[in-house]
Amino acid sequence: MTILVTGATASVGRLLVDELVEAGAPVRALTNNPAKAALPAGVEVAVGYLGKPSTLPAALEGVETVYLAPLPEFVDDFVAGAMKAGVRRVVVLSGEPAEYEAQGDPAEWHYYKVERAIEEAGFEWTHLRPGQFMNNTLGWAESIKAEGVVRSPYAAAVQTPIDLGDIAAVARAVLLDESYTGQKLTMSGPEALTQPDEVELIGAAIGREVRFEELTPEQAQEAWAPLMGAETAEWLIDGFRMMAEYQMKPEPTVPDVTGRPAKTYREWAVANADAFR
Fold first, then answer.
1. Are residues 119 and 139 in the same domain?
2. What is the DSSP secondary-structure string of 96-113?
3. How confident is the model at residue 109 (pLDDT cuts 50, 70, 90)?
4. What is the DSSP letter of 174?
């Protein structure tokens, strides 16, 4: 039975398509831009987007299992279309904050809004809850190239960054093995690291010294708000504050599910060194 991968041009979704093709699974990829996706031969393409509900009926036709990228604004449209199409299973790309969100104001739900909608609709479900992506630190590339420095708040914040490929590998296993139904899989990389730790590893990968300069929360808000909006900047800064107060610990999900070690940040930094040179 065909597996629909939504967000097939996105970071995890595109890697997941390759994983499923390698496993010999029939894949239909939902993407607004098939040319940009450069999908492998044999992948069925559905042109569309979760944010364009009118494109979903054709994409969902004949599909039993869906990998659902997080787009909470349109999750109700997806649920209605999937129920009508007879979809049975939904594997949700959620996020580690979902459990925390569930305790708070429903108006501020993001990941948990998607999880809750899928559960209440009666689908068989599995929720994938990765934490911070290693790729997020690509945002440091320009300041490293220009000044050899990274500026950010909360130097003591401890994170457990995960590689996108590891998320895709777990998603592949879960999509192909129904024994994970009903589970919420919190996922991380294999290490607990601070931002200065990550900066040091990037410096080692590119063969030059890179400094970390700690900003106050106020300085970070002033620097980031013009780039990403005040609300997003405040959300990110608050996330670093929480990781400083409640230090994260690595989860064993990647090796437990895939049977191989999760990628380390050092390995990621070496593989992405050209982005920082």
1. no
2. TTHHHHHTS-GGG-SHHH
3. confident
4. H
C-alpha distance from residue 18 to each of 37, 249, 257 (Å): 11, 29, 18
User: Do residues 28 and 7 lie in contact, with contact meaning Cβ atoms separated by under 8 Å?
Assistant: no
Query: Which residue range(s) make up the domain with 96?
Result: 3-130
Q: Which residue has the tokens 């990403």?
A: 228
The two beta strands, 124-130 and 184-187, are parallel
pTM more than 0.85 = yes
Give φ, ψ of 42 to 5 degrees: 95, -10
Round to the nearest angstrom and report the end-to-end CA distance of the chain.
45
DSSP assigned state of 48: -
pLDDT in tens, 14-54: 999 999 999 999 999 999 988 887 898 889 999 999 999 99
User: Within the chain, how many helices (H) and strands (E) appear?
Assistant: 13, 11
Which pLDDT value is given to residue 58? 97
Tally the domains of the chain.
2
Same domain, 122 and 138: no
Q: Do 126 and 144 belong to one domain?
A: no
Q: In this structure, what DSSP letter does residue 39 have?
A: P
Classify residue 226: in a domain, yes or no: yes
